[in-house]
Inverse folding.
DNA sequence: AAGAGCCGCAACCGCCCCCAA
DNA sequence: GTTGGGGGCGGTTGCGGCTCT
């Protein structure tokens, strides 16, 4: 079934906007705000379709738009985020205040893409175009490491973005999420009204990416337990390292689990259910004994793509040194922040207390963030990434 | 000076997802 | 459970301005 085009109505204008049209649109929005875009043109006296009005507003007329040349910092941010997120311009735009996705997209296509190409870097993969030239020196390893970290960082970015949205949602609409409840946060955040909510301060993942990782106060490439991970603009106080899931290197049949995970990965799921976890647990009886992983609880749930990515990406990236327990711990953390309701949430996952009471503001997602970092820290200490 | 080619960017197009009816 | 509208998103187009010859 073909949907009728919004501009199919005879008489609707297309093409460049005139200053008069801009003025009409601005005046209307200033007075009435943004309601239904479809109804807006008629009310504002514009011979335009609603979609055209929306684009004109979001990409040009909005008062919080910064125009002009991109700074070096912004360029670096775009390149790094593109390496992590790909052509997800709206996601990239959320980390560049006052820049629109359209502007970033244009800048990428007209400037950055060409510049990277000239530098011999594939703008899509962010890898040197001729890998064979770099094999033999450390470049290929560095590239692999960067790619590897990018996968983790990408998953983390997604989780973070979700965290921010959920936090905002729950703080304004105190739904009490229950385990196994239909009101799964991942579903709640799909409420498009969320997109209209102002985001809290950026979690500043780029500073984590660019600074904290390389300037850990311990001198390690990765932040260690005693490091203050607090980001200048982060809403998370990472120095409160009150609780971390204790990851332990358990023995396990790696080939079996790898096969399971690869089979899982091959299916390219957008979601999965606890049956997968059950399978893993059956192959790894020692997992059931782990006090820090609520394997039974995990089996009862449905996981979204971000959660699944924790597992899949870990093995897709080919790090055989990463104990499955770490992956599971990260998986558990990701789930934990979804459902935690107080500062004991992660512990509660352990003792089976999944009651949800209290406000999300009290939710200790600081620990979630810390655990994310700790997870990578533990991981890095066991391998020689970077 | 003028035409051709290139470049940058605003705007459009088409697809997709979400949600209310 | 289905359908259709609203809106978001990424890819593409086309025009105006700039540079080159």
């Amino acid at each position: 079934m073909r949907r009728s085009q919004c501009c199919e109505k005879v008489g609707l204008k297309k093409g460049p906007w005139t200053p008069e049209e801009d003025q009409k649109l601005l005046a209307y929005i200033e007075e009435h705000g943004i309601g239904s875009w479809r109804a807006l043109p008629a009310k504002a006296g514009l011979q335009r379709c609603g979609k055209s009005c929306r684009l004109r507003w979001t990409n040009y007329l909005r008062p919080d738009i910064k125009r002009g040349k991109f700074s070096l910092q912004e360029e670096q941010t775009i390149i790094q985020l593109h390496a992590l997120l790909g052509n997800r311009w709206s996601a990239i735009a959320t980390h560049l205040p006052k820049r629109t996705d359209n502007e970033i997209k244009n800048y990428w296509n007209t400037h950055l893409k060409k510049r990277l190409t000239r530098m011999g870097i594939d703008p899509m993969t962010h890898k040197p175009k001729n890998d064979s030239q770099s094999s033999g020196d450390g470049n290929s390893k560095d590239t692999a490491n960067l790619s590897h970290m990018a996968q983790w960082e990408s998953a983390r970015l997604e989780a973070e973005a979700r965290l921010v949205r959920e936090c905002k949602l729950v703080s304004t609409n105190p739904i009490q999420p229950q385990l196994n409840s239909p009101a799964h946060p991942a579903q709640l955040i799909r409420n498009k009204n969320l997109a209209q909510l102002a985001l809290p301060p950026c979690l500043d993942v780029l500073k984590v990416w660019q600074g904290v990782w390389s300037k850990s106060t311990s001198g390690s490439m990765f932040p260690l337990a005693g490091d203050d991970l607090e980001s200048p603009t982060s809403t998370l106080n990472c120095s409160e390292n009150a609780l971390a899931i204790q990851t332990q290197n358990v023995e396990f049949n790696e080939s079996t689990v790898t096969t399971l995970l690869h089979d899982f990965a091959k299916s390219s799921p957008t979601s999965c259910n606890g049956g997968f976890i059950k399978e893993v647990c059956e192959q790894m009886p020692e997992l059931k004994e782990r006090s820090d992983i609520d394997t039974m609880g995990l089996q009862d749930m449905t996981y979204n793509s971000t959660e699944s990515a924790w597992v899949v990406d870990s093995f897709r990236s080919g790090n055989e040194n990463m104990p499955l327990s770490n992956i599971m711990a990260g998986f558990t953390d990701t789930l934990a922040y979804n459902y935690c309701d107080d500062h004991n949430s992660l512990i509660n996952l352990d003792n089976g207390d999944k009651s949800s009471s209290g406000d999300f503001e009290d939710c200790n997602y600081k620990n979630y963030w810390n655990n994310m970092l700790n997870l990578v820290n533990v991981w890095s200490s066991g391998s020689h990434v970077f």
Residues 3, 5, 7, 14-17, 51-52, 55-56, 59-60, 102-103, 106-107, 109-111, 190-192 of chain A lie near DNA strand B (CB under 10 Å from a C1'). The beta strands of chain A are 272-273, 302-303. Chain A is about 55% helix and 0% strand.
